[in-house]
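Most newcomers find our protein records easier to grasp once they have seen one. Read left to right, the backbone structure tokens trace the chain's path through space. Once this layout is familiar, the rest of the handout is easier to follow. The record below serves as our worked example for the rest of this section:


***
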Amino acid sequence: MSPTVIKQISLERMASIVKDFPSDGHIPDNPFIEKEIGDIVHAAGGHPNLVQYNDSFVEEQTLYLVMEYCADGDLYDYLSRRKQRTMSCSIALRVLSQVATGLAFLHDHGIAHRDISLENIMLHRGRCKLGDFGLATRDLRGDGRQVGKKYYMAPEIVAGDTYDPKAADIWSLGIVLFIMLTGSPLVSLASMSVKSFRTLKQAGIKTVLQAWGVAPSMTDSAVNLLSGMLQIDPQKRLTVAQVLEHEALNSSQGECTKTA
């Protein structure tokens, strides 16, 4: 039997969190949603690029989620251990390809993740797995409340607009790629009140990459891919299918490893 890890959630504490919903309207993680999405993925046969949820049960006011153990930790810790806190363009694209493949499985089953980040990409035996479904949704439109981590939050979510959760996922995935390449978030918040975001909107991602000194190490197709993922207008943003079909990933399939 493969090793597993058990996540414990106090139902009493969860009820308190729901009762004291943050005044800023930021949606908290919901373990019942995590269980529901995990069950859907499991029933659909699972996917090698998604963390597998194997079982769940309630005992003494505690919800237990039983999921596969990912021996190599998460992508955030992996990058933190690297001297430059970055990856080469080719390796970053391999990671992106795997995560996007898992995300495509979710999107194909009507699920948006809404919390894609380095911390939620697990590494296990040379494979990347998207996990933590506590903010996922099957709704076609988001209701304007903020959700996810601020560095990864799409502009339309920050603005409080109704939004397409799947398009917002692509923005977050683009931020993951940007961090893998530069070692730093693109913006502190995707808001016009933030200077770096205004620069992005006015100059475009290629100019930003040049300013960071990253552009010379990237192919034109990789820059084009990142630009398509980080379109501020969500209607112009690539879909996950378009990401996977993109020229930049055609010759960059493979596995991400701890020694890469």
Summary: The first strand starts at residue 4 and ends at 10. Strands lie at 4-10, 53-59, 62-68, 121-124, 127-130. DSSP finds eleven helices and five strands in the chain.
